[in-house]
Specification:
homotetramer, mainly alpha, 3 helices, elongated
Chain lengths: 97, 97, 97, 97
């Protein structure tokens, strides 16, 4: 667990970030509706790809903020660990989970 | 646009599918909460990767149902087009959107 | 292990397929040369992305040939297993290995 | 174009990097052989996934070296641009090309 009191890379644009996540949440709800109303499988898959792309964009934004703020802003001693942590996150995103 | 009256590959397990999508919707809402309470960027990225992995699973399930039901079940004449459509969906999922 | 005597989905266009793979092999060799001559990391990464995209295209072509030829051409009894096998390959490509 | 005289993040482990790329080149050549000897499509796809995974590993290694060396080592003025460049490379790897 990481303390939640410090500021983070994304702190300065929390509102647009939450707005984007809310839109993604709505897209997922829309897919539920598509399944419920028996929409064509391929159309549903297209929507899933759209959600994936939107999540990738959010992830890249967070990675960039994190690199700029937390990695570069870290003390010389903490930086190697922070860089490693960043790359582990990149690896996870490349393999998707 | 595709007609919505016919049955689809996923028709027999609509309920578990909707349940899984609802869980994913909840995960996205959880990420909003993490941003709102200033959680550590890397922890948020881990959650985004988890949502991507869950969406990949849903997509693979839909692809399989579609292949088994709509592609193989298609008339000989429609099959090449259906197969092409399936592969376009696979390509989109590989590139993510 | 699978017998190698039967014809496969890609049999009719083996030559262009081998040509594409040979080009990919050359691209990888080009990357070795870039490392050897101390080229800029980001330029090397761009080339790696290009190879990945080229491999994705080859994979999609093989998947399509396989779906059209081996899955649809299978006996009714073998088809569920063949479809499952196809989807396992898709899953592996989506997660990349 | 980027000058090639400066040292890079990967300079200290050029030999193992070239060795890994040579192995990947050999894997691609192996896939050509599989096509040539009419091996089963799914077995070929499995090998393609293996090459993709190997390339991802090389890419992650390069990204880490680059982050540690070129981004963090950059002057304060150059760092935002270097970080942006790194993230563009990550985005390309996530979408694969």
């Amino acid at each position: 667990m990481t303390p939640t009191t410090e500021t983070h890379g994304y702190s300065t644009n929390k509102d647009p970030l939450i707005k984007r996540l809310r839109r993604i949440e709505g897209q997922v709800r829309g897919i539920e509706g598509m399944v419920d109303s028996d929409r064509y499988c391929i159309d549903i898959l297209t929507q899933i790809s759209a959600v994936q792309a939107a999540l990738d964009k959010v992830a890249l934004g967070l990675l960039t903020d994190h690199a700029e703020h937390c990695v570069i802003g870290a003390s010389e001693d903490d930086r190697p660990e922070k860089t490693q942590e960043l790359m582990t996150a990149v690896a996870r995103l490349m393999r998707r989970g």
